[in-house]
Every structure is written in C-alpha cells, then in structure tokens.
C-alpha cells in the first residue's frame, strides 16, 4: 500500500496544474508528499486539445504557448467587422501536449510529486483521510491512502439543471498555400455562417502564422451533429466565407462542452474533493475553464501549505452563476438571438471589461452597467421564469474528457469558446 499527504486523480488541466503548484515549495513552507495518478494509455486518458485564455502580463506556462494575440475580431452576420485591442490583457493559446511536457519536466526536477500510472476504480473515505483502489496498466491491484484526495475525473452524468445547452465544435488545423491569415488577430466570433433554428453558430479562427491556423465551427444547441455535418460546415466556412483557397488539413480537434446552470458538488467525501470541470470550473455561459482551474488550484495549494482545510472554493461567484443562468435560459427559450446578443455586447462594452466579465472579474456596478446593454425585457422574463423552473436530469450519460465521435454526446476537458 502506498501513502501520501495528497493524491491527485487525473493528469489533465486540473490535475497537472495542482501538481505543478504543489511541486513549487518556497523556503520555509512545509513539505507535502504528493502522488499524481494518471490513467494508462487508452480510452481513460483524454485526447489532445487546445485551451485558450486571457491573462494580464506573463504567466507560468508562457514557455509552452503556441501563440499570443492582443486583438480580437467579431464579424456580424452581415459581415460588419468589430475589432478590439484587449490590452493590458493578452489572449493565449496552449496545446495540452505542450502543457503536459512543460509540467512534466518541472515535476521531474524535484521529488515532491510522485507519478503513478493506474486506473482508479474507487475512492472511499477512511479514518483520517481516503483510500483509493486502482489497477495498474498491467492489471495489478493497487491501494493508495492519503489525507486529502483531489479527483479531476469527468462525471458520468451532469447534475440536475434548469437549463443545459451544449457547446459542440469541430476544428481543422490548416496550412494554406499562400499567406491569408492576420497572425495578430483572433476571429473570436464570426457569425457569417448559417444560424441553426433555436441555437447559435459561429466560426472561430486562431492563426499561428500567416499560412497556419486552427479553424473551427461551433454551435450552442441541445444536441450534437453528425460528423459529416461539421465537415460540411467547416468546408463552406473555409472556402466560401474565409476564402482560404488551397489548403491542407494537418490535424483535427472536436469536443462538446456542457453549458449548464447545474450545481456541481465540489466535495464527495470528508477528505475527497472534485476539481476542474467536475468541480464546476467551466464557465456556464462561455465554456472557458482554464483560468478558473488556475484560481481553484492556487487556493487549494495555499490552504494545504498553511495547514487549512483545502476545500476548493467556488470557481465562479454566485453573481456570475446567476447571470449565466439567466443568459442560458434566454438563449434556450429563443427570447434572445444569440448572434445579435454577443455582437451587441462586443460593440457596446470595452473589450477588456467584457473579458473580465466573462472571467468573473468585474464588480457589481460593472455587471449592472453591462446588463443594461443586453435586451432587458427578455432577460428579465427569463430571470423570473427561473424562479419556478424545476431542475431536471440530463437524459444522456455525459463524459467530460472524451473526444467527439459523432454519436451520443461525449465531451472533453474544455478551455476555449
């Protein structure tokens, strides 16, 4: 049997971020023994994916970034361009493989964190902590005990909610025959694509060079589409809207992100906590997750070093969650046109303030001012409706770490819109 002060289950964004923070012990801080349990290669291990987030100044993972931008562009359905400089923020693109390589190198330099490859089967509370039963890649049983366990594995199903939409997308990493991309600007939301009934669709372009970019088609709706439908939408967007000309698809990326007002329980036992997407880190109105994971793991690490109870704090404030619930209801009910709503926000709210709002960093007076720039009556009606709507359960099982495969909706660990 193995023992440690802390066990982290899962080596995705949340698990690696927490392990990285716990490996960086300042002089005088207490030493903690940490075991990071990663799933063996196979279906339990998440696929490669892209996270995007905004940040003020340099960050701890800058050495692994694929690209950085200071300008965001929104295009209306009619083609009008709204371009904004987001200074003092920067918009950053981080590939999960590069993130894992960077963190793995730093973990290998010290002995604070021990890595273990095993499939965790159960996590149960025991006297003074918790016990994990797992199985190695070769099938051998393993038992691990710890004072604290942080579990980042995806939930098998979503909690009960009043509104649940899916943000589902498919993207191509393309290389064009000629320079066609503005490498300094992200196409944040391009609404020059057909809008689905009762939903929202947009193009999203992350240029990494003048001839290379990640081009995605994204929908907010109640169900995913057949794989061929995404490919057709991407082909039309790339050729007819962007006018890329000749290009090669060098890789693909797909996923589904839950946009829900469900309440995620961050504690599953006296010494067992959920972190990351399973712990409610995903912002309901946008799908962004990576920045919230950093806030969550920073607070956990500080509490552990100080000898306090390390229960993860809410990733998003109650006010932010309430505003998101109203927006989700307004979109799902059809009272608000999604393309018009986001275009209106981007045109009337300074970009830096809007990004702070999307990250939950605005103050009450800023939130109130922003709310007045939305369709007030439909939003008020949606807010009133929420007071009597019951919370229902998702009809399908939901996994937050699997790639989209064209069947009943799976998901991946999100971090981009």
From TrEMBL:
This is Lycopene cyclase. It comes from the Bacteria. Residues 398-417 are annotated as: Disordered. Pfam families: Lycopene_cycl (PF05834). It comes from Streptomyces akebiae. SUPFAM superfamilies: FAD/NAD(P)-binding domain.
């Amino acid at each position: 049997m193995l023992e440690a002060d802390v066990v982290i289950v899962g080596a995705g964004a949340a698990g690696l971020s927490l392990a990285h923070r716990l490996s960086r012990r300042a002089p005088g801080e207490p030493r903690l023994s940490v075991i990071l349990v990663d799933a063996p290669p196979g279906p339990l291990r998440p696929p490669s994916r892209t996270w995007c987030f905004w940040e003020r100044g340099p960050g701890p993972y800058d050495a692994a970034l694929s690209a950085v931008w200071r300008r965001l562009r929104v295009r209306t359905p009619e083609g009008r361009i709204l371009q904004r400089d987001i200074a003092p923020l920067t918009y950053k693109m981080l590939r999960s493989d590069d993130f894992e390589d960077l963190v793995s190198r730093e973990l290998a330099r010290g002995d604070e964190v021990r890595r273990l490859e095993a499939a965790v089967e159960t996590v149960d509370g025991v006297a003074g902590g918790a016990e994990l039963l797992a199985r190695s890649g070769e099938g051998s049983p393993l038992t691990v005990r710890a004072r604290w366990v942080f579990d980042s594995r995806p939930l098998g199903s979503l909690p009960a909610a009043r509104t649940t939409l899916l943000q589902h997308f498919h993207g191509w990493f393309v290389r064009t025959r000629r320079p066609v991309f503005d490498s300094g600007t992200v196409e944040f939301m391009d609404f020059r694509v057909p809008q689905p009934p009762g939903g929202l669709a947009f193009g999203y372009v992350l240029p990494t060079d003048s001839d290379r970019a990640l081009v995605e088609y994204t929908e907010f709706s109640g169900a995913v589409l057949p794989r061929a439908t995404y490919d057709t939408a991407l082909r039309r967007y790339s050729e007819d809207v962007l006018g890329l000309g000749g290009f090669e698809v060098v890789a693909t990326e797909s996923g589904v992100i839950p946009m829900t007002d469900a309440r995620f329980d961050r504690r599953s036992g006296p010494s067992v906590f959920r972190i990351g997407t399973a712990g409610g880190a995903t912002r309901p109105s946008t799908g962004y997750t990576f920045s919230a994971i950093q806030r969550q793991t920073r607070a956990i690490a500080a509490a552990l070093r100080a000898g306090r109870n390390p229960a993860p704090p809410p990733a998003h404030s109650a006010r932010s969650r309430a505003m998101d619930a109203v927006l989700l209801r307004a979109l799902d009910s059809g009272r608000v046109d999604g393309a018009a709503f986001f275009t209106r926000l981007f045109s009337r709210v300074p970009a830096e303030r809007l990004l702070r709002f999307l990250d939950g960093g605005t103050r009450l007076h800023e939130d109130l001012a922003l709310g007045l720039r939305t369709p007030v009556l439909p939003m008020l009606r949606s807010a009133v409706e929420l007071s009597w709507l019951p919370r229902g359960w998702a009809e399908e099982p939901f996994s937050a770490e699997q790639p989209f495969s064209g069947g009943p909706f799976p998901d991946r660990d999100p971090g981009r819109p």
